[in-house]
Amino acid sequence: MVKKFSDNMLSQLYLGLAADYKALSKKSPALTPEQIYWTLYFKVYGELANSNSAFHELDYEGQGKTWAVFNAFIASTPLYKNNFAQLQQFRREQAIKDKLKKKQSVIFIIDSEPYCRHNVFFDWAMLNLYFSSLHAHHHHGGWRGSHHHGHSSSDSINGEGLAFLILVVLVLIAAVLACLALYYMLSQTLNSLERFVWNEGWLQAFITLSSMAACTAAGAVLGMLVVASPLSALILAAGINNPVGLVIFTTVCLSLALGALGCFATNALQKHLLKDKDAIDPMDACRFQLTDSEIDHLWELGLDPITIKCAITALREQMGEEPVPSLLNRLFTTHGKEKQALLAQVRQLRRGELEEITVDDMTFNLRRPQVMIPAYYYDAGNQAYVYHTANLYPQFNVPQQGVYMDSSHQHGHASMKPLSPELPPPYPAEGQQPFYNATAPSFG
């Protein structure tokens, strides 16, 4: 079955390239930039032929996006950010074939695992699979002590005193629960308003606010109809003549507690129902996605949506495995402020306010390069690699009758042996010269 290239596959490809790039950069003796480039190039190349990889059955458009992610990643790395002009130098198909024949001299096997396996659901809790050597997790176990204070009954405590003691305990519990519920409801209200303002999931925000209001109202009704009578009796038994104030206070506390509980349950259900396995962050898809209107706006500004998605993935990786914290947490804690700064950059990227951004040691040039890219695309139907000229962007692709290459491979890697005579690549139209993007910077 032909698959589409999803944002989740983009994020896995980017993270896999980032992990391999860091591993190659730390090798001793140090590898040359060109060796690192070609190692990553053929890792992606073999990924398209690996039957265990989700990239194996991508259509031409999806494979084109795969190479666009690769190009965006390479152009953003420290080794290449100062050589971006060299990446734009045009080359002929023969340059690729020369490298294919010499690949054994520059390829360093990193691992045989694909970046994106079939039927493996990725979310950001799995981030350590890509950077296990970079993010060490230490789990400290401990026993939580519990202290039990026994209260022996006394014959001197009469029924009224016991009722008063029970009432005090209930009021204190209600007050504590109400304070916690009020904080949680305030936090969720601010989170929902933030989603409305920044268009980060208005439906999720609306459901959260609606469930909060409905459960709070239900709690008030339940308090008046069910709790008021027995509570009044307890108050009178404790020797208090006017129970109205305490009944109203307890009912308000109960309504707040049930409102927070209903909101919590609704949010948990939404995380399960609104989970998008194709998104950059499946558990919070709307916050890190580009809508169709945003993509059109980025095109109008001359920016590259694929590179912007790579930058968003890099920013999401900087946030760590945990979900994005609440707005209050991001406003009033040091760790939260760091994540708020990263989230603000994501929003700038979505609005097209940046033409370049640096994330950690990666520098992303977000402008759209108007170049054509020559590539070998894997045709699952013919089980062969087909060469044709296509733009980095599918809407400008010019499908061609390609040159096929042998796809027989072992362990999921293509042999890349030419089967056709040495012919120049086809032209997009009569009299029109095809353009070629550089496949690697020249360091010699």
Automatic annotation (TrEMBL):
Give UniProt keywords alphabetically: Membrane, Transmembrane, Transmembrane helix
Q: Domain of life, per the record?
A: Bacteria
Where would you find the membrane-spanning parts of this chain? 162-186, 207-240, 246-269
Mind telling me what this protein is named? Uncharacterized protein
Q: For the region Disordered, what residue ranges are annotated?
A: 406-444
Indicate, by first and last residue, each region the UniProt record lists as having compositional bias (Polar residues): 434-444
> Which taxonomic lineage does the organism of this UniProt entry have?
Bacteria, Pseudomonadati, Pseudomonadota, Gammaproteobacteria, Legionellales
